[in-house]
Amino acid sequence: MVGRWRPGSGAQWDKRVEFGRLIALGVSNAEACRIVGVNRKTGHWWRHGRKITGTDGRVIEYPPVATAQKRDISSRFLAAEERVVIADLRRAGHGVREIAGRLARSPSTVSRELRRNRDEGSGQYRPYAAQRLADKRRARRRPGKLARDAVLRECVQGWLDQHWSPEQIGQVLRWRFPDQPERHLAPETIYQAIYRPELGGLRRDLHRRLRTGRRCRKPRRRAEVRRGRLVAMTMIDQRSAEATDRSVPGSWEGDLIMGAVNRSAIGTLVERSSRAVILLHLPDGKSAEAVRDAVIAALAPLPPQLRTALAWDQGTEMALHAEISATLGMPVFFCERASPWQRPSNENTNGLLRQYFPKGSDLRSCSAEQLAEIAAPSSTPGRARRSAGKRLPNGSPRSTRAEPTSTMRMAR
Known about the structure:
The protein has helices at 10-24, 29-36, 40-48, 80-91, 96-103, 107-116, 127-137, 145-148, 150-161, 166-176, 187-195, 197-200, 241-244, 288-299, 321-328, 344-353, 368-375; strands at residues 50-53, 59-62, 234-235, 251-258, 265-271, 277-280, 309-312, 332-334. With 412 residues, it is of the alpha/beta class. It folds into four domains: 10-62; 81-137; 145-209, no CATH class; 234-388, Nucleotidyltransferase, domain 5 (2-Layer Sandwich). The two termini are 64 Å apart.
């Protein structure tokens, strides 16, 4: 197997073929590994190839999977078939405008093609020779500034070793070489040379000097195409004045408390006027369906005047907010992104509840009965608060002789 890769077992060979197909379709390395069921390091070797030196000094080479695709040429360039049509019509004596009309091209495009790509010796237009000339003239990748200039490359590598950012390096280069614009670099040029060292000529370990330490860029989507955006949201600034100043009960704020590695959750509902707390039992996860059912089950038993509005953040667990509004007859308002202060009662209560649900704990171990006991006014969320005049959520003063019972019951 020296110098040439051969298929191994049938199952692994099939996985390698499927991996190559997924990579050719544009699937990421990590996702392709997950689909075919191999380790990410194995996928990296399959994608980029691998060389192993044996104990006897022989080199065993595993070539990468074939992922090269035919380069797509923009339709604004003339194709080989169009050049054949131009040659035929030109021989038949047709003018430039008539040829352009048949090809649905601009007359200037046809005129430029006949002038630039004709045979220099005979002056005739030969379509296949013209195609070769056009391919040769088309822009080719050339070495960048860093690859061409050893002095510039050493300067950039030295400053990166000192943990300078590409933006700082770009500014210093303009100061160091004020009369040599060919040595001025944009920060993006340095980033590209770090992420693709085969093009920029930099060392392959320089990504570790960046703030993030990433080997490649984290892909980002534009705001309008990001996943998880809720639709038909009513923002919190449209909430009634009574709910804002807490003068009338019935306005609720909600959120989720997450467990270890975000694999478990419980829901929290806080009434803004009385600070009454309802905890939502979510044994089946925090999907939109589970949160919808839990919120409806918790608030449906209350009189309509005690469920007039609900405020939540823009988490995907509220994707079915329209169904909650339709079932309960109460609007759902959404806070601005990264604005937890717009749900102050809920945020404060969640902080108190962390006494019972420490970060990193598995919330699936909490039963509905335990959540009901914690949500009772005698527990931490129901403690006397300064903002409520040191009264309990049900309106009574703190007493050491008798503990009040909750007027709100948790949905089971």
